[in-house]
Specification:
Two copies of one chain form a homodimer. In chain A, 62% of the residues lie in helices and 4% in strands. Chain A contains 29 helices and eight strands. In chain A, strands 4-3-5-6-7-8 form a six-stranded mixed beta sheet. A two-stranded antiparallel ribbon of chain A has the order 1-2. In chain A, helix 5 packs across helix 14 and helix 24 packs across helix 25.
Chain lengths: 680, 680
């Protein structure tokens, strides 16, 4: 008993709110700190707090508090255009970092852009256009310092697939292009809307695991698509699943492959992969893989120009339109059937683009430890795509590979995007004719080497280790993309993610608690095998909020624990259980169904009580002597603020007796079975 | 310091697994019980356990374990037909109870059946048919002892509304009837399937609050529909929303109302309500409201017969077909468009019928304290509707009002349903001609008085008190049904319920913990205003599993708590926070996104640490002296079994240091700020 004296003395001294029922019951029953019943909250306040936590959890208006009108205007401008804020402390040192980073990502983006445009079934210049206007807009409105903006592989593939489901890009190139701009416009609108309504948290519903699987699947699919250019196949399937593509490849094996193309492609792919390997080995040489694509393009172009390999069947880029982005405002469908199609495609592409950009932004913000307002980012990305759709760009977003290069090259601010944009501008104005003899196989090699980085096997292994359900979502997304299509993969990923949430709230865990030897701490006996059960007392912890979706399950599960335990005790001729303590620490909330379930549990226990009274009259009387005021057997330990509020509001607290609710499990055990604890 | 000595001594004595890092650090640092890392579980076992808990949570096969083959067969038969089990202990005393209860509910069900059939736009005999076959089947297969089976108001209304959306019952009565049987067939199939696949938990997704609102809305709608019969209106709208109905009523006011009808209806409604009042006042007189409807029917029929009121425009039932249920197997659509329509309607009606029956079954099972296997119930209800659809019945289920009467009349087993069924059989065979002169107004009065019981204002008030969000779901369902339609009300209820679950997992609560004076217990300082913060330490409790849907929010929220707290301390010139303890007790699970969020949190804190080191070199050095081995500032307290498993699997436990994970918050505080705790 030695180890309790202290606390008992203390609580006796200080607790002026102890229960009347336990007062004057002799020294065996300790005084116990009462469970806090928080003051009743104002309904309106409660509601606005909830709404604020949901939509304004990052408190974006905190800087505006207590400022003068003109200051508020400036702060508002700075909120929309962060460049106004950070440009004030911009200096030459920072510019040197940005210049180098900008030139590096420009050299990487030009060959990628030309290749990605093909994934979207668009002409090469549209890829370059999309690397000119959007990065400029982002530099003014975005708040990430490391992201590199432009077309990316996955979104290009997704857009290409969705668009060609609606319009054939070879038969109706003009209509196809118009639909692409329409989709881009609505992708931007979607992004702005999500950001503006502060619904950014919706993209969190695409789980990390699902994104890993989806990205890997998309990378495989994109790689397979490159077989067309890489092998020089002329008749290639429009489908993206692996079965169709492999059929297409083997069907053309005996006549369609071009050995010159394969030779050029394979040797430069080897070069690119070797450059990648060097960059990985020595992180200081990050610029080697970054400029390798441009070098490959230059070398192969010169090679084809000299050898006239294009006459031998090596497919070349041929023509890239010269000059910067023409306006495309009048090409967007604002009426008719295509408006709807564009809207639907735009929403999907916009959300996937957001997911990628926000993930990149968060990763680098965490690495450099600055805050990123996700919703503001979405507005910036959306605005950039809306403007892009009017200037002949298709959906742009943050690129994983280029952002990493940008970071490693020492970028300081979004100025690196401006530098890149300027280089693309020069390319469009003066250099496009030079790409005429660039072989398509090189672009395929560049894309293959780029998308390999999207396959993150380490992450998949980690997911397998940590959470099997996540792994199912990951593999579902992966196989869905590879064997069916990008959309199906996405659908599978989202469905599995939702199923997981619903399963969690439908079948929460429960645990039997025991006492950790010589402490007053009660823990799961499965996790702590050394923990011992208290004789005559069953302590159950419920590991979830009790809601309508699980209230019946929880009630029945607790009763089953009780039955199981009683059978065990009966078999061992041990005394029956007379007290049920429900540890409520993890029960963060309860609703009306939950309260009803507790009431039903209480009623069932009372029925059992009567039985115990009849059958084991003697033990019951004995236990009553021990426990003073404990008549019924349901005790609650540590209900939280919201739960205790509702227990009182529903009168359940009174119906089980206020003195059956304890601050800790230890207090409850001390009250209902003091002997049992002392004996340990 | 007095109140810690004991535990410190104890833990020193017993803990053989204490951390190497905290050994030999001087007497100030206590030894601490280690967090349990459960033995690695077999993947297959883990998976089967999860599946079992989801689908077989009630362990329906436990009785079969270790039984012989023939015994298993008998047990299996008994599982499908519980009557084989309970009939063995059936006796005359029980039969007396069942006989009285059966006669009482029969007298109540006959007038109700005739009225409810009208709600479903069917002829009166179909209501009676549905009270003959289904209760018989249920008596053999069902396990609830108190439920009274037959047509019910809400399902009749729902079926009528959904069916007449597809086929006009006045223009194509034959086709309409066939579709009704088809829907009934698929309602049964749906119920059997849900039960057989043990997906019964899906109906838990209709929350109690939503059901309360939906039922009340349906009651109002049904009541409004009765105005047709009650006021003797001939041209009545087909829509069920309050606006259309009231328009219809007032449009017919100047020529359509029949005062004789109103007089008869109003006087008998008054009688019924008075009988209800008597039954409520004195619970022993429960039979008064139970037989009042039949008395009203008999009296009013005699009255109309004598006065020839039907010649004055009082509408009467006219003809009810004589004889028991004809076969309807060949009327069910098994092909064509109507198959699909019937299927869709059947699924919805079947699920609503299930919800009602299971709710009733559970309520009475809890009152008499017997177990009810929800999934087995569903199979019984489904089988009964499948057979019903082949014997000219429409969807039957458990009726709230009749089950309550059944219970109060002292029913013992499902034999009361057999008795009722027999009475209905006699009625169909011999008594139907007697109903010829029964005025429709009486049936309307019977229905109005019956559905009034579905409006549970007390429950709504309680919901308002307990959970405002539930109240919104309740009101959404109510107004949806009243102002739009039954389907829309249902849709609103389900959507709000889902939104609630998603919101919970997206924006979980977090709380700052403080120490309850003179204990080692740390609790939410909002709930326990007397709790005090530990200087230099921020203790945050996360109140939810950390999943992809909330991991970013939780990370950012914790960092915001930290920033807010630091600002407060700065303003008060108090020492900075150097330790962050995250209390993980309510964190029941974590997934890969959650682990990533913790890693990012850890990285951000390390960055802060460096800053603190630079800025406040002196205090840092001082605190290092105090805290021995505490370099980085993230501590975790009491992660559960699953969480600790994943922390180790992901290597996060090692990256923050295993000795930063504690059994309790008190242990963590004791390690990182022993002085602070001593000073209290």
């Amino acid at each position: 008993m030695a180890h309790h004296t202290d606390e008992e003395l203390e609580t006796k001294e200080i607790d002026t709110r102890s229960f009347s029922s336990s007062q004057g019951q002799g020294t065996n029953v300790p005084y116990i700190h009462k469970v806090g019943v928080p003051p009743k909250q104002d309904l309106f306040k409660e509601f606005t707090r909830g709404a604020k936590e949901t939509f304004l959890s990052d408190d974006p208006l905190r800087h505006f508090k207590g400022q003068s009108g003109s200051r508020k205007f400036i702060l508002g401008l700075q909120a929309v255009f962060p460049i106004l804020e950070w440009s004030q402390s911009y200096n030459l040192t920072k510019f040197r970092g940005d210049l180098i980073a900008g030139l590096t990502i420009a050299s990487l983006c030009i060959p990628q852009d030309i290749g990605y445009a093909k994934l979207a079934n668009l002409k090469p210049q549209y890829g370059l256009y999309s690397s000119f206007v959007p990065p400029l807009i982002y530099a003014f409105m975005g708040s990430s310092r490391d992201i590199a903006i432009g077309p990316v592989a996955v979104v290009s593939l997704l857009l290409g697939t969705l668009l060609q489901n609606e319009i054939d890009p070879t038969k109706n190139p003009a209509e196809y292009l118009r639909l692409a701009f329409t989709a881009t416009f609505f992708a931007g609108i979607t992004q702005v809307t999500l950001g503006f309504l502060r619904l950014g948290f919706l993209i969190d519903f695409l789980s990390h695991a699902a994104v890993v699987g989806f990205m890997a699947g998309a990378a495989i699919t994109i790689g397979l698509q490159q077989l067309k250019g890489f092998l020089g196949i002329t008749n290639f399937t429009k489908k993206t699943d692996i079965v169709s593509v492999m059929k297409s490849v083997f069907a053309s094996a005996h006549h369609g492959w071009n050995w010159q193309t394969i030779l050029i492609g394979a040797s430069f792919l080897g070069f690119l992969l070797f450059a990648k390997y060097i960059g990985k080995k020595n992180r200081k040489l990050f610029w080697v893989p970054a400029i390798a694509p441009l070098i490959s393009v230059v070398l192969s172009t010169i090679f084809v120009y000299i050898t006239h390999a294009d006459k031998e069947g090596v497919q070349i880029v041929n023509h890239i339109a010269k000059g910067i982005n023409p306006s495309s405002v009048n090409k967007i469908y604002f009426t008719g059937e295509n408006l709807l199609k564009g809207f639907r495609i735009g929403v999907v592409a916009g959300i996937i683009a957001l997911t990628e950009a926000v993930a990149i932004g968060r990763t680098f913000a965490a690495m450099k430890d600055y805050q990123l307002d996700g919703n503001k980012e979405m507005v910036a990305l959306g605005a950039m795509n809306v403007v892009g759709s009017m200037t002949s760009c298709y959906v742009a977003t943050g690129s994983f590979s280029r952002s990493a290069v940008n970071y490693m090259a020492g970028c300081q601010t979004a100025v690196s995007n401006i530098v890149m944009s300027f280089v693309v501008f020069l390319t469009l104005e003066f250099l496009t004719p030079l790409f005429k003899y660039t072989p398509n196989a090189i672009l395929s090699a560049v894309i293959i080497s780029a998308v390999l980085g999207l396959i993150d096997i380490e992450a998949a292994v980690l997911i397998w280790k940590i959470d099997k359900f996540d792994f199912i979502a990951c593999m579902g997304a992966f196989f869905g993309v590879v064997f069916a299509s990008v959309e199906i993969g996405l659908l599978i990923a989202v469905s599995i993610s939702f199923a997981k949430i619903l399963l969690q709230v439908t079948r929460p865990r429960t645990a039997i608690l025991g006492r950790i030897p010589r402490t007053k701490v009660y823990r799961n006996i499965q996790q702590y095998p050394e923990a011992t059960k208290v004789p005559g007392v069953l302590i159950v912890r419920v590991d979830s909020a009790i809601y309508f979706s699980n209230s019946n399950y929880i009630k029945e599960r607790i009763l089953r624990w009780l039955t199981d335990e009683e059978e065990l005790l009966k078999a061992a001729y041990l005394p029956k259980i007379q007290f049920l303590i429900v540890e409520m620490s993890p029960v963060t909330d309860i609703d009306t169904s939950g309260i009803r379930a507790l009431e039903e549990l209480h009623r069932s226990l009372q029925k059992r009580d009567v039985e115990i009274l009849n059958k084991n009259y003697e033990t019951m009387v004995l236990s009553m002597i021990h426990t003073s005021s404990c008549f019924f057997s349901l005790f609650l330990a540590n209900p939280g603020q919201v739960v205790i509020d509702k227990l009182f509001a529903s009168d359940f607290a009174n119906s089980i007796g206020e003195n059956k609710i304890f601050l800790t499990v230890a207090d409850a055990v001390l009250t209902c079975a003091p002997k049992a604890v002392e004996e340990v």
